[in-house]
Specification:
280 residues; nine-stranded mixed sheet; 30% helix; UDP-N-acetylmuramoyl-L-alanine:D-glutamate ligase
Length: 280
């Protein structure tokens, strides 16, 4: 069984209009999707001793993600207030809580038993990605961050570099992918929402259109695409096969609320800080 770890951010995405919070965060989502795709996955991160943290922990256990390196700390679990415009998510505000943690030596050593590790730029772990990449293959999500100095620092460490490019033209997306490839990334994935995705590697450029879907909620679709692409590359699938599977999986994610599901009621008495002050 392919073993892939994810280290970094988690959050509860709070849909105030529905009174529901959902586990989320780039790295947590990737750990769940890797497991759903048939891999063995582990999540390394930190949650608080509150209702939101219990929702995240329960989701990981339900999905079969290894929680051995999950920290439960004093302080609030990270949360994000989510609004929607049609099916597209709108980020209203967030609090990172205890999710911005620093890995210890045992966390890094833990990675040597995995075929790859995924880390996202929103996790604040850039000072640790070199150590992680020394243990195993590195998947790194640049998301929408595109400053050249950052790309030049991280790209040489990457087995897979991912970019969120929904705002980029095809030409711009290819230029960003080319820069990351020239910088040392073995594979570069650019997801472009309804325009599909492109994957650039030593074998050339591969593109796939978005799969048709009845859009309910797009939150988590990009993370799905990253996870399925990483899984396929580690498994030795051809780019054509893995991209087709990734597009189909991302479309499936858009058919339900929350990135990975597992919705739970928001208790407005203070389980998630500040929510009690918001209108329902």
């Amino acid at each position: 069984m392919i073993k892939i770890a994810a280290m970094g951010d988690n959050v509860v995405d709070c849909y105030i209009s529905k009174g529901t919070m959902f586990p989320g965060g780039n790295c947590l989502n990737v750990s769940v999707f890797i497991r759903r795709f048939g891999g063995y996955s582990a999540y390394i991160g930190a949650i608080g001793q509150d209702a939101a943290g219990r929702v995240i922990e329960a989701a990981l256990l339900h999905e079969g993600v290894d929680p051995a390196r999950l920290r439960i700390l004093d302080g609030p679990t990270a949360y994000c207030i989510i609004g929607h415009r049609d099916a597209d998510r709108v980020f209203v505000r967030a609090d990172l809580g205890v999710s911005m943690f620093s890995p210890v030596d045992d966390d890094i050593t833990f990675l040597k038993d995995f075929a790859a590790v995924h880390i996202g730029q929103s996790s604040g772990l850039d000072d640790h990605v070199a150590a992680a990449a020394a243990q195993t293959l590195l998947s790194y999500d640049f998301s929408t961050r595109r400053d050249p100095d950052h790309r030049r620092t991280i790209a040489p460490l990457c087995f897979l570099a991912s970019v969120s490019g929904g705002d980029l033209s095809s030409h711009e997306a290819f230029a960003v992918a080319g820069e990351l490839r020239e910088g040392g990334a073995r594979w570069v994935l650019v997801t472009r929402g309804s325009e599909g995705a492109m994957l650039l590697g030593e074998e050339g450029l591969f593109e796939v259109p978005a799969s048709p879907a009845e859009l309910v909620d797009t939150l988590g679709a990009g993370d799905t695409f990253i996870a399925r692409t990483l899984y396929g590359l580690v498994a030795g699938e051809t780019p054509e096969v893995l991209l087709s599977a990734a597009a189909a999986a991302a479309a499936e994610t858009c058919r339900y609320l929350g990135a990975v599901g597992h919705g739970a009621p928001i208790a407005l008495s203070g389980d998630v800080p500040e929510l009690q002050a918001l209108p329902a």
